[in-house]
Design brief:
Elements lengths: L6 E2 L2 H8 L3 H15 L4 E11 L28 H13 L4 E6 L9 H13 L5 E5 L5 H10 L3 E3 L9 H4 L5 H13 L3 E3 L2 E3 L5 H12 L7 E6 L16 H14 L4 E4 L8 H9 L2 E5 L12 H11 L2 E2 L16 E2 L12
Parallel strand pairs: 1-12, 2-3, 2-10, 2-11, 3-4, 4-5, 5-6, 7-8, 8-9, 9-10
Helix pairs in contact: 1-8, 2-9, 3-4, 4-5, 5-7, 8-9
Bound molecules: S-adenosylmethionine, 6-(5-methyl-2-OXO-imidazolidin-4-yl)-hexanoic acid and iron/sulfur cluster.
Length: 346
């Protein structure tokens, strides 16, 4: 990866980039990708739900909210030995990153459940994979303790634009999400932060979400782009499937806007054919969730993914367990505004 000064992008720039003819956009994204990454590597991450269901929050897309009848039962936190067994299996299958998720509003230092998570992290970290956790809201102290225990990255998505967020979630705010991200970064963890397409948002919302991400300093280390997997019983359970060309466009703009981040083609791959996934990799996606299950939902079978990577001449990225968090830039380099060819008034 070639070091490059961070830059942020405005909504107007992102709009111009997004609305280019498809092939021009892909060409631009590919050039940025090749400048920053060896083009043929994809990181394989295993997701493990260490605490499933029963969540107090009302995120309208989520099968794990206790407020909706989705058929997902509340379970207790997995014990350390079970997690270790799954972590070893993930490593043996070629994953270089383990992302452990918990269906919680957040965690608090000094509680038994948080101590148990710290213990899990301490036991998994020596396996040599990158250790990512996603536990909901964090304060400064929780972030520091997670970092000390061996967490390399904290996943906390902004999910959509600040304007659309209150239409999807009412039990916490967009600003709460930004606060947690700040605490994770201040503690020296890398941040994995992205969003979901298909929440009834406009293209404008999607680009505003990217604008926020591109203005993080430091930039997120990874950016998951999820396509909504509509969950029966949730308010968004009947939403239509995300169009694959607009998904690829978002991947491409994310690659251009946040060039050094791993762009993760995340939930929803079961609805993408091999050709659409190949296009997403070409446009800049260089990470996937790997393994037959996401948190509660299905993912493509691991052997199918390996076959696809082989077919495309892509290889699994080497582990980087010492992953250091991107450092904040003192001087932010703003790319020059380009005139918009459209008549939309942006
Ligand atoms: N409770 C924690 C939180 O909210 O950050 C961690 C778990 S939560 C399930 C992690 C992310 O998964 C969400 O922010 C969202 O981006 C994604 N996600 C959840 N349900 C999804 C769905 N049905 N389809 C696509 N992505 C989903
Ligand atoms: C992310 O952005 N996507 C992952 C991970 N981070 C935690 C979660 C996807 C969840 C898909 C729905 C489910 O499995 O319930
Ligand atoms: Fe809870 Fe996270 Fe699901 Fe929201 S997305 S309901 S916080 S598990």
């Amino acid at each position: 990866m070639i070091p490059n000064p961070l830059f942020s992008m405005t909504y107007a720039e992102l709009h111009r980039i997004y609305h280019q003819p498809f092939f021009d956009l892909i060409k631009q994204a590919r050039a940025v990708h090749e400048e920053h990454w060896t083009g043929n590597e994809v990181q394989l991450c295993t997701l493990l739900s260490i605490k499933t269901g029963g969540c107090s929050e009302d995120c309208g897309y989520c099968a794990q909210s206790a407020r909706y009848s989705t058929g997902v039962e509340a379970e207790k936190l997995m014990d350390k030995e079970q997690v270790l067994e799954r972590a070893r299996a993930a490593r043996a299958n070629g994953s270089t990153r383990l992302c452990m998720g918990a269906a919680w509003k957040g965690v608090r230092a000094g509680t038994q459940k948080f101590d148990q998570v710290l213990d899990i992290v301490r036991s998994v970290a020596p396996l040599g994979m990158e250790v990512c956790v996603t536990l909901g809201q964090l304060g400064e102290e929780e972030a520091r303790q997670l970092k000390d225990a061996g967490v390399t990255a904290y996943n906390h998505n902004i999910d959509t634009s600040p304007e659309h967020y209150p239409n999807i979630v009412s039990t916490h705010t967009f600003e709460d999400r930004l606060g947690t991200i700040r605490h994770a970064q201040d503690a020296g963890m890398s941040v994995c932060c992205g969003g979901i397409l298909g929440l009834g948002e406009t293209i404008e919302d999607r680009l505003k979400m990217l604008e926020v991400l591109s203005n993080f300093n430091p930039h997120p280390e990874s950016v998951p782009i999820n396509a909504l997997m509509p969950m029966k019983g949730t308010p968004l359970g009947d939403n239509p499937q995300v169009d694959s060309f607009s998904l690829v466009r978002m991947i491409a703009v994310a690659r251009i806007a946040i060039p050094r981040a791993k762009i993760r083609l995340s939930a929803g791959r079961t609805n993408l054919n091999r050709e659409a996934q190949a296009l997403a990799f070409f446009a800049g996606a260089n990470s996937i969730f790997y393994g037959d299950k996401l948190l509660t939902a299905a993912n493509p079978r691991a052997n199918e993914d390996l076959a696809l990577l082989r077919e495309l001449g892509l290889s699994a990225q080497e582990p980087n367990p010492d992953l250091s968090a991107p450092v904040a830039d003192e001087v932010r380099e703003l790319s020059p505004p380009a005139p918009c060819a459209k008549t939309c008034g942006c």
